[in-house]
Design a protein that fits this description.
The chain is mainly beta. Helices cover 7% and strands 49% of the residues. It has one domain: Nucleic acid-binding proteins (OB fold (Dihydrolipoamide Acetyltransferase, E2P)).
Length: 135
């Protein structure tokens, strides 16, 4: 039987990434990504909803994400879904579904190096700053 576990999202980081190291020394970076969906209700009212995704990266990709990503940055994430469960101190069972990324593309120009002959910060007038984002 064939199966597939693949997810692709484009969204903005909700906060700066957090890097740690696994017991074997591998780098692990975690961050959250918000995606927005705008739709119109049957009554004609325009609504927007935000969905949050927890993303985990490993190895060299984890190091790059920690170095180049920050709150508000626009990213494309591709990977697989993983759900973990654990029992809390209160005896309740908790679940967390996250994306284990195998590809992260930095989509905004802020994450890219300036083009030859362009000074850092040029061409960014009118862009939103991370603190201006509603999340």
């Amino acid at each position: 039987m064939v199966s597939l576990n693949k997810v692709m999202i484009i969204g903005n980081l909700g906060k700066d990434p957090e890097m740690r190291f696994a017991p074997n020394g591998n780098a692990v970076t975690s961050f959250s990504v918000a995606t927005n969906r705008v739709y119109t209700t049957a009554e004609g009212e325009r609504k927007e909803e935000t969905e949050w995704f927890n993303v985990e990266t490993w190895g060299k990709l984890a190091e790059q994400c920690n170095q180049f990503l920050g709150k508000g940055r626009l990213v494309y994430v591709e990977g697989r879904l993983r759900t973990r469960s654990w029992e809390g101190q209160d005896g309740q069972k908790h679940y967390r579904t996250e994306i284990i990324a195998n590809m992260v593309r930095f989509l905004d120009r802020q994450a890219a190096a300036p083009l030859p002959g362009e000074k850092a910060g040029e061409g960014e007038a009118g862009e939103l700053e991370p603190d201006d984002l509603p999340f």
